[in-house]
Amino acid sequence: MKALLLDDTHPFLEEALVQGGLELIKDYTRPLLDFPVSYFECTVLVIRSRMPINAKFLSQFPHLKVIGRMGAGLENIDLSQAKLQGITCIRVPEGNSRAVAEHALAMLLSALNHLPRAGVEVRKGIWLREENKGREIHALKVGIIGYGVMGAEFSRLLYAMGVQVYTYDKYRFDYTEGTMIECSLEKLQAEVDVVSIHLPYNNETHYFADEVFFNGFAKPVHFINTARGQITNTTALLAALESGLVLSAGLDVLEYENSSFTSLFDAELPVALSALLLLDNVIITPHIAGWTQESFEKMGRDLGAKILAALKTV
After folding, report:
1. Is pLDDT above 60 for 208?
2. Total structural domains in the chain?
3. Model-level pTM greater than 0.85?
4. CATH number of the domain within which 80 lies
5. How many other C-beta atoms are found inside a 10 Å radius of the C-beta of residue 73?
6. In the chain, N or C terminus with fewer CB closer than 10 Å?
């Protein structure tokens, strides 16, 4: 059997596949239209985010049994076509859930204590203490929207710090731990001081955080999104920040990223995003929440094991 790797991965993954009897074909740059016929004989496909795996592309692989995505989401795969062909699609959210949780926590603590703004001010010779008075996280109620692997990990981290956590998941019930409060979206919006998004991206969650969403909170909130950029309507978030409905935002993902997550500045920036970049209460990072040395290793190890296990059942 052959495995086609379309993005660079971790040596742990490659070693596992070779030990499992697969021959590796690595091609990280070739466009889809230039693939040689021999590629389509592969049994396993390993991807990250470089290219969309659409129906036309998948239909060229008559022997494909498993697609392994080295990451948490499967939105760049045509899952309907994969199901039609009997292809098992695998992801490894467990591999970077801790990294995402720590990044979300870092964003929240930075926002609550005005770290980005205060750092810039001091470098300019400005020494403002009262104006940069912070908040202690245990004094706030935090809402988690989406209690999958990522949301659960962040919830546990907060719970360990003595934070009251409210959780909402449309498709799960009776899942919370300790003193976490499982509730409706309306209840969450009525109670929390902080809201963190941990949803997968699909047609249902596109612009989940829109004008109606931000207007639904009983008090001003701090907003965090480490999931996918298009879950948040940037124009609505900007309006909420300007009106005071949102006190701060921590964004590791942006609506306008390209599909491979590798770049933002491919074209002229939209007006709303340009305005967002000027706000000192907005923290933005380049889609790196789940990208640590440790998570890279864990994802490689876990994906290799999952692929080999899946091959034994097909």
Report:
1. yes
2. 2
3. yes
4. 3.40.50.720
5. 17
6. C
